[in-house]
Write a structure and sequence with these properties.
The chain is an alpha+beta fold and about 180 residues long. It has a single domain, classed as Roll (Bifunctional nuclease domain), CATH 3.10.690. The protein has 6 helices and 7 strands. A 7-stranded mixed sheet has the order 3-2-1-7-4-5-6. Strand 2 and strand 3 form a beta hairpin. Helix 1 packs parallel to helix 3 and helix 2 crosses helix 3. The longest helix has 13 residues. It is globular. The relative contact order is 0.18.
């Protein structure tokens, strides 16, 4: 089963300068963070913010080529996670045929925002790696501090002790995930 998601945000890690696109399940607080490259993050962000560029970017070119070839994009699907690598598919229609194109999730998402089509994630992927906001913060703190578990809601961990990691956590503002 496929679950529709929307782009909640595109963020940057203060520790590594890597980008992450945060997909949030519609009608739920569950989200899926996917690390992506800087060019793809910029391509997604430019379109989300309706910033016009003088010349077509790669994803604009691909959409123009598909349109010229009389193909329409139906949706994009994050269909699999294997060995920590996400696999996506762009679903096209051309001359009555349904065509699936293998793609990186970042490219598929950048194309989806340009075409204005839905983004889906396979339920098995969301079940395996989807997160609720509280779970993700707890897991991140545990991973960073090397602790195996935190009992209850109170911890001895001071956020200030986490340095740059605290900045990243604070920048995520996961409470916004429940709004829309």
């Amino acid at each position: 089963m496929m679950i529709e998601v929307r782009i909640d945000s595109v963020r940057i890690s203060l520790m590594t300068q890597n980008r992450v696109v945060v997909l949030r399940e519609i009608d739920s607080r569950r989200y899926l963070p996917i690390w992506i490259g800087a060019p793809e993050a910029d391509a997604i962000t430019l379109k989300l913010q309706n910033i016009k560029v003088e010349r077509p970017l790669t994803h604009d070119l691909l959409l123009n080529a598909l349109t010229t070839l009389d193909a329409t994009i139906e949706s994009v699907v994050i269909k699999e996670l294997k060995d920590d690598i996400y696999f996506a598919e762009i679903i096209l229609h051309r001359q009555g045929l349904k065509i699936g194109l293998d793609a990186r999730p970042s490219d598929a998402i950048a194309l989806a925002v340009r075409a204005g089509v839905p983004i889906y994630v396979d339920e098995a992927v969301l079940d395996a790696v989807g997160r609720m906001p509280e779970e993700d913060i707890t897991a991140s703190i545990l991973a960073e501090t090397g602790q195996e578990e935190i009992s209850g809601k109170e911890t001895d961990i001071e956020i200030e002790d986490l340095g740059a990691f605290a900045d990243f956590i604070e920048g995520l503002n996961l409470d916004d995930l429940s709004q829309s």
